[in-house]
Amino acid sequence: MTQRLHLVFGGELVSPAKNVFRDVSKIHVVGIFPDYASAFAAWKAEAQRTVDDAHMRYFIAHLHRLRDEAQASGPTEELGF
């Protein structure tokens, strides 16, 4: 079975209406999680912790979707990384 990794991260946005970070060097990386349920729990905890700040937003990135297992190589492997 393929491992489905998820990244939880967030930070202050320029505007609550846009998903543009004010300062990308200050993005808070919560962590990488082995399944959606644990990633969701971490996301929810951070989102609730920062609920009073409309400019703070947290996201879940599905890392497993960045690589197509059906292809012989992924985009980064084609670049030699």
Summarize the helices and strands and which ones pair or pack.
Elements: E1 6-12, E2 28-33, H1 36-49, E3 56-62, H2 75-78
Summarize this entry quickly.
The protein has 81 residues and is α+β, with helices and mostly antiparallel strands.
Question: How would you describe this structure in keywords?
Answer:
81 residues, 3 strands, 3-stranded antiparallel β-sheet
How would you explain this protein's 3D organization?
The chain has 81 residues and is an alpha+beta fold. 22% of the residues lie in helices and 25% in strands. It has helices spanning 36-49, 75-78, and strands spanning 6-12, 28-33, 56-62. A 3-stranded antiparallel β-sheet has the order 2-1-3, covered by helices on one side. It is globular and about 40 Å long. The two termini are 25 Å apart. The model has no long low-confidence stretch (mean pLDDT 87).
